[in-house]
Amino acid sequence: MGMRIDHDRSRFKEIVRGRIRQNLRKYVTHGEMIGRKGRDLVSIPIPQLDVPHFRYGKNGAGGVGQGEGEEGDVLGGQGEGGAGAAGSEPGGHILEVEVSLDELAAILGDELHLPRIEPKGQANISQEKAKYNSIRRVGPESLRHFKRTYVEAMRRQISTGEYNPSNPNVVPTRDDRRYRSWSTVSEPEANAAIVYMMDVSGSMTDEQKEIVRTEAFWIDTWLKSQYDGVETRYIIHDAVAREVDEHTFYHTRESGGTRISSAYRVAVELMESQFPVENWNLYCFQFSDGDNWGEDNNQSLALLRERILPKVNLFCYGQVDSPYGSGEYLKALEGAFGEERENLVLSEIADKDGIYESIQEFLGSGK
Amino acid sequence: MTLKDQLRDRLAALPAGGEQDIVASDGDQTLRCGLASLDRTGCEFVRLAVETPRLAGAATDRLQKIAADLAGRLTYLLEPISPVEVDHEQCVVQMRSSPPQKNDDGTTYYELLVRAGGELSLCRFTKAVGNVRQTVPAQVTREVLLRLAGDLEAAAV
Lengths: 367, 157
Prior knowledge:
The complex is a heterodimer. Chain A is α/β, with parallel strands linked by helices. Chain A is built from ten helices and ten strands. Chain A has three domains: 1-51 and 93-113, no CATH class; 125-186, no CATH class; 191-363, von Willebrand factor, type A domain (Rossmann fold). In chain A, the strands form three sheets. A six-stranded mixed beta sheet of chain A has the order 7-6-5-8-9-10, with helices on both faces. In chain A, strands 1-2 form a two-stranded antiparallel ribbon. Chain A has a two-stranded antiparallel sheet with strand order 3-4. By secondary structure, chain B is of the alpha+beta class. Helices cover 25% and strands 43% of the residues of chain B. Chain B contains three helices and ten strands; from the N terminus they run αβββαβββββββα. Chain B has helices at residues 3-13, 60-73, 142-155; strands at 20-26, 29-38, 42-51, 81-87, 92-97, 101-103, 106-115, 119-127, 134-135, 138-141. In chain B, α1 (3-13) runs antiparallel to α3. Classes of the chains: A alpha/beta, B alpha+beta. The A-B interface holds A 201-203, 238-239, 255-259, 293, 323-328, 331, 350 and B 83-90, 92, 94, 96, 98-100, 106-107, 109, 125, 127-129, 132-133.
């Protein structure tokens, strides 16, 4: 029989999930949870929830019915008003709940109606895994196999005539102890590589980068919930491109002009050298304000058509509005690829509120 | 006779009206002004450019100095213009209104390109949501147009 507290706990988790669901758009849009991301958990502030709890008092500081005063004394009394007016704002009771990234991905998938991804081709990346599939006589105590140990002790007692069925006390000795042991097996897994490309030229401001950062967090969360192993690479570019780490990706601002083809070249090299298309499910997410310097469009489109799209499961281009409005590159892509865009998804992100729909557009194809 | 003086004379000689192109030369410098309309006090220009071989082969450092100098001079356009991007490969400095003008119809801004090939050109663009950006005529008084011509001419030396 399950304990009452387990029931209450699962009910509370359901309430939390419901609140997250209700406010998912807000969380997606504002990205306030990204800074609270731990290794596998994120803390989400839920202002509308409060959990009742007991608090200990101070020992010896009195209690009910103790202290000065006589029976019949009026409690409280009319005190003199202090300086300042009463507050008009609601009290801040913010409860932070920890939600696993997998759970968050599930909520995101449900709310945005995201189809589960079907990995391309066969899973042919071998991953070394430890499997506890054997028993040994030695090992750490944490891995002691109690059942096997007692069976061994019982067997010994029976064979030596020590075992008494009317008083079945089985006491294992050191020699009876058995421990779980593992062997390394290689298992085929469907793996994915995500390549993020961002324009960091002078026209991309911090606000645009924040949009990219928030959207990338959700894309990561979803794809990691769909694949066993996800490798992520980051490329920044202005007129030239280079591969960088995650921190540099989100915090760099250059003053150079915009040449999208430079990022495509680095992405192609990266995919060809590190992620052969036969073994990897490849995803590219590119973000720019679309203000590509005119003559570069032809080179960019050719690279995309001939060297990137044939390799990737999905290529997503998100065009964020800069202070000068949205650029022309999105239109160039629409013009070049028309409606027949099997694995190319385009999205225009006007502001933070556009992130929600953009994620839906990017991940809604189930590729 | 400077490009600015020549432009003043040409404007004075032109009748009020619609599209007209003005080309003036002073030594190796050439001024091109594409007018969309002209009246007694003001005009609309689509493009104002000064071409000079003196900037041929100039390094981006020099172009950036010119751009910074222009950013200090062009303070009379209601929108401050400052360098936004520098293309080191093609040696071009892109300057734009900072901040651009935003209204219900979209965003409107000046764009001034300083090219190593030897050209300083000023245009005005508008970008409405969902549309491609388009050149729009910049409305200025004759005095401002002459001042612009003088500043571009001085920067191109």
